[in-house]
Design brief:
Elements (H helix, E strand, L loop, with lengths): L1 H18 L3 E10 L7 E8 L2 E6 L5 H6 L2 E14 L1 E6 L2 H6 L10 E3 L2 E3 L5 H14 L7 E6 L1 H4 L4 H7 L5 E5 L4 E4 L1 H7 L12 E2 L4 E3 L16 H17 L2 E9 L5 H15 L4 E6 L1 H6 L4 H12 L6 E3 L2 E5 L28 H13 L3 E6 L2 H17 L8 E4 L5 H10 L2 E4 L2 H13 L3 H4 L5 H7 L3 E3 L10 H10 L16 H7 L2 H7 L16 E4 L3 H4 L9 E6 L2 E4 L4
Parallel strand pairs: 1-4, 5-13, 8-9, 13-14, 14-15, 16-17, 17-18, 18-19, 19-20
Antiparallel strand pairs: 1-2, 2-3, 4-21, 6-7, 9-10, 10-12, 11-12, 21-22, 22-23
Helix pairs in contact: 8-9, 13-14, 18-19
Length: about 575
């Protein structure tokens, strides 16, 4: 019996080694682990999509001797970092918008081409006319994304009619929260004044529809969701992820077009068929369920059903998004006293009591809540909701996330810290909006202090950086550049005290972003046991410094051990 036991024990000890998948050891010029105990390395061993060991080639030798392995030195002159994380994107928006050209105040480099920005009315008009002249799809209107009146002047229905009396043309606002169309476009799409009656977020005379007013318009644009068109748009988005070094993204608005089940299916089909080197975590949004007349209980049942089809690349988890105030680009953020310079008012996207009701239901169900929050008045409402929830049922690790963080006060930062809130911020807001908002809407004291990340770092509030794609380039290194330099689109350094350190910026797109997503045990750093997700860079961020971050070239990514060069289809 003892001999039999020893024989079986010996066999069991050899089975894992003989059955184990081949181990690949990647060597690199430098591996930035984002692990304080071992911040740098030169070799990492990977098997079955996970990290086996990290260190030097010599330190990995015992693993290489113990199991079948091979050495891969293709990254010998590259820098490896943890796969970059963008915790707030909108895959369906680029899938729709990249079907058409971009014409915004800022420059855009996309899989579909290079689109220079227009920063004044004359340049905008000239560029728009050229785009319309080149439009060769008579069955659909020309839709140009990126219009903003603060740069481009007032361009509404009447102006579009003058420029394009016969060609259907629509402008999708830089915020994505507004659409403007001319007579030809409205006629082509079958949009009538009756479609807008009773909707206070539309102006028929101007051909202007915003926020909830879009509900009358988007259903009239079915061509946007044609499987071939939408599929190509999704492939554009997936290419954007890879070129940005992103291996994990949180979709922060599943259901924005009113059919979340179909949206998830289309995103999954594109991601799975292309073998995209990334995972996308889908986040249902309150406004979708409100528009469809659902209760919180009914919403949770739907979400439970969506989870049944989770795959390696597309997942639905326990995230839920609330919507507080309106879009920052539209000037609809809720600002506290003294408000806006020109006297206009912000907007709540749902009554606060309704938002609080839904927050309570999902809080008690154990969800991680996220809230679109831009102005300081909206931040105050966010804090009030969180305080009430904590008082009713304390959750010590709730990670209730304030999304965007466009404007806040120092006192609010202290309150966020006290309540255990975390922040997912878009530093690109400061880059593109600070100057013009200082001049037109907020005054320099508040406009210069947009996205006060320095305050979060000083008070120890965990934060991540996001693109809100397509509100900012899907490039975490560009976002890190924005956060560490605080230089505006006009080259002005403003709010210098709100800059963050280089290390904090890199943490905000890796391990701290993993914390926001709730995946800190799986991704965000390079250590044994985590998923083998890497961003492969041509330069070392710590060597080029803050000023060189946005110029670093991303060679490609490694997703769960699979190598994906950025220039490969």
């Amino acid at each position: 019996m003892r001999l039999l036991y020893i024989t079986l024990l010996a066999a069991s000890m050899t089975l894992p080694l003989s059955a184990a998948a081949e181990m690949v050891v990647y060597t690199a010029s430098k591996i930035i682990t984002m692990e304080p105990a071992l911040p740098e390395a030169t070799a990492v061993a990977v098997a079955d999509g996970r990290i086996v060991a990290v260190g030097s080639l010599a330190s990995l030798r015992p693993w290489m001797d113990a199991r079948e392995s091979r050495l891969d030195s293709r990254f010998e002159d590259k820098i490896l970092m943890p796969g970059l994380i963008d915790p707030h994107v909108h895959p369906s928006l680029p899938a729709v918008l990249t079907q058409f050209p971009f014409l915004a105040p800022d420059d855009w480099s996309l899989p579909t081409g290079e689109f220079p920005g227009a920063t004044n009315p004359q340049d905008y008009a000239t560029s728009l006319k050229a785009l319309v002249a080149a439009h060769d799809s008579p069955a659909v209107p020309l839709i140009a994304w990126g219009y903003h009146p603060l740069w481009h002047g007032p361009v509404y229905r009447q102006q579009l009619n003058q420029w394009f009396p016969a060609t259907p043309v629509m402008l999708w606002h830089r915020s994505f929260h507004e659409l403007i169309g001319n007579d030809a476009a409205l006629k082509m799409l079958g949009i009538t004044e009756a479609d807008t009656r009773g909707n206070h977020e539309s102006d028929w005379e101007k051909g202007h529809f915003w926020e909830n007013g879009l509900k009358a318009i988007v259903p009239k644009l079915p061509f946007l969701f044609d499987p071939q068109r939408f599929g190509q748009g999704m492939n554009n988005f997936l290419q954007m992820l890879k070129h940005g070094g992103v291996t994990t993204a949180l979709d922060m608005g599943t259901g924005v077009f009113g059919n979340p089940a179909a949206e998830i299916a289309m995103v999954r089909q594109a991601a799975e068929s292309s073998k995209a080197p990334s995972r996308i975590i889908m986040t249902p949004i309150i406004t979708d369920f409100l528009a469809r007349g659902k209760t919180p209980a009914e919403a949770m049942l739907e979400i439970d059903g969506w989870r049944q089809d989770n795959s390696r690349r597309v997942l639905v988890e326990n995230h839920f998004k609330l919507m507080m105030d309106g879009a920052i680009f539209s000037g609809l953020s809720q600002m506290g006293p003294p408000g806006y310079l020109d006297g206009h008012q912000g907007q709540w996207l749902a009554p606060l009591e309704v938002t609080a009701e839904w927050a309570r239901a999902f809080w008690l169900a154990g969800y991680q809540l996220h809230a679109h929050t831009n102005g300081d008045k909206s931040a105050a409402a966010f804090i009030d909701i969180l305080r009430a929830l904590q008082n009713e049922q304390a959750r010590p690790d709730h990670r209730f996330t304030l999304e965007h963080f466009a404007y806040s006060t120092e006192d609010q930062t202290r309150q966020l810290k006290a309540l255990g809130a975390v922040v997912s911020a878009n530093p690109y807001y400061h880059y593109i909006l600070s100057d013009v908002y200082s001049d037109k809407w907020l005054g320099p004291d508040r406009g210069n202090q947009m996205v006060r990340l320095g305050s979060l770092q000083r008070h120890g509030v965990p934060f991540a950086l996001h693109s809100d794609s397509p509100m900012a380039p899907l490039s975490p290194l560009t976002l890190a550049y924005n956060a560490t330099n605080r230089v505006t689109i006009n080259g002005n350094l403003t709010g210098a005290e709100e800059r963050i350190s280089l290390d904090a910026a890199l943490r905000a797109i890796t391990i701290d972003a993993a914390w926001i997503v709730g995946w800190e045990n799986e991704i965000g750093s390079i250590r044994a046991g985590k998923r083998a997700d890497f961003a492969v860079l041509d330069s070392d961020p710590y060597q080029v410094g803050a000023s060189g971050l946005r110029d670093i070239k991303v060679w490609g990514t490694v997703f769960e051990g699979e190598v994906h060069p950025a220039d490969a289809e």
